[in-house]
Amino acid sequence: MWKKHPKALPFLFFSEMWERFGYYLMIGIFTLYLKDVKAGYAMTEAESADLYGTFIALVFLTPFIGGLLADRYLGYRKSIIIGGLMMGIGYCLMSVHNIAMLYLSMTLVIVGNGFFKPNISTLLGNVYTTPQYIKQKDDGYNIFYMGINIGAFICNFFGAALYIVYGWGAAFIAAGVGMFIGVSIFLIGTKHYIAFDVKKGVTEKDMSMTRIVLTIFVPSVIAGILGWMIPGTLVGSDSTDAFIFACLPVIYFYGSLYFRANKEEKKTNCSFAGYFCSGGFILGSI
């Protein structure tokens, strides 16, 4: 499977596989843990659903900022490592039964995902920009996508077994260990993609980070709050309404980028978006 592809692919494949292992293990038990009367937080169905929905919404919002920071300032490798470590620590902290610790751990996972998720996919795309491999880019993303599915599949068995034998804490720690394994694999393979970790920087045509935050991110937060506060619900729950409202400024931003981009950028971004949406957003909504 790897022979005709860059040597970077297996390292990125297994890094992503273990990251998805940790993420979906945590997601799979999260609401059950929140509703557990004896060992959890005894939340109602509505309370746990709103907290879960808010968490998922923020997980999909932060890559917007994490990708920009990596592109302009941090670079992809550093962002991936920072994000992976934050997520691993966040999963492990979820094993501590304390409401303040729960929110801290959720914050670490949300921010860490923003740094990890968009940038490992972008780094993979950069690896396939050389003339030798550019025609195999679609195949490379297909293989990479398989890693997402494998990680999401095997985590369920580990999560269930660890909870039954040792309790919730062990299952969350397993998610953290999976994330740390993914970061370790990524570090081991550094030499194969260090040359492709090229920061794009900021050109004269680019919006400044301050302007992006003030015109896109802040309006997203405000729109999300308004979506949460409107009387009743539009799409089933307050958290879903908030997520949809918060997405509107981001959709506007990316739409404007698309119409300003040249043909080659549109082709590359659409190819990546298809894989990202099918591998991340669809699985993430299950």
Write a structural description.
- With 286 residues, the chain is mostly helical.
- It has a domain at 8-204: MFS general substrate transporter like domains (Growth Hormone, Chain: A, Up-down Bundle).
- 78% of the residues lie in helices and 0% in strands.
- The chain is built from nine helices and no strands.
- Helix 1 (8-35) packs antiparallel against helix 6 (168-188), helix 2 packs across helix 4 and helix 5 packs antiparallel against helix 6.
- The longest helix has 30 residues, at 45-74.
- The two termini are 28 Å apart.
- CATH level 3 topology of the domain at 8-204: Growth Hormone, Chain: A
First and last CA, distance: 28 Å
Radius of gyration (Å): 19 Å
Specify the biggest β-sheet: none
Provide the structure class: mainly alpha
Tell me the helix content. Answer: over 70%
Poorly predicted regions are: 271-286
Q: Give the overall shape.
A: globular
